[in-house]
Amino acid sequence: MGLTNTIRNPNVAGSFYEKDSQILQKTIASFFENIKIAPKNVNNKPIRAIISPHAGYMYCGSVMASVYQLLPGKPYDRVILIGPSHSVGFQTVAFDTADAWKTPLGITPLDIKTNEGFLFHEEFDILPRVFDKEHSLEVQLPFLQTVLPSFSLIPLCTGQDLPHKKIAEVISPLLTDTTVVVVSSDFSHYHTQTEAHALDQLSIRTICSKKSPEIDAGVDACGLEGIKILNDLALLNTWNPVFVDYQTSGDITGDTSAVVGYAGFAYV
């Protein structure tokens, strides 16, 4: 496969989140300090997956904290991280050739053996360039490094028009009790606050329905490909989605003329 003991440096430290490690730690801690109470139907249940937003922390950090609060205390030692590509077009699931990913909070090793296994599946492809400028996966890592003491990472970037069920069938055998899936997605983009609320409430209800055709048609999200893969994983493994939290960028900035929606979910 040609792995060369490389470490992927962060792309968006200093823009989407703080570059200084101490300031970053304090910022993430402040989100957890101001967190909402977890849904009662999630408490004390094993979390199999979450959906978390991927904007700048100032906009969506509180929603991220709402879902990431559910992971500490669980025995996770591997994270399958799925997010969309915002800059490169392709029609497979991309995986990286690096040996580890770095953020200001430290270095996280990739699960190289699993990555090598993806070579046997035509739905997956080695495309390290996809990760060169991508933020959707990277912004999850400081939160993961905060709530999990030690873990390996399987970062997967989704292209377009994917065979979601086939991909879920490849990923499903990897799902041990110590593996958690994280899907990175924002929701509606650049509608008024009122319009965004309507669109996003429809998306929330549709995701919670687990009905694949309705998710394909009724969810307004940039990470829709990952959400569809996650829905097929949920169907294969009898997981149930639980809505956790929601807000828009307008709730933070006060500008409600063109907002982005951020929703968090847990799968139990």
From TrEMBL:
<dbReference type="InterPro" id="IPR002737">
    <property type="entry name" value="MEMO1_fam"/>
</dbReference>
<dbReference type="Pfam" id="PF01875">
    <property type="entry name" value="Memo"/>
</dbReference>
<protein>
    <recommendedName>
        <fullName>MEMO1 family protein</fullName>
    </recommendedName>
</protein>
<comment type="similarity">
    <text>Belongs to the MEMO1 family.</text>
</comment>
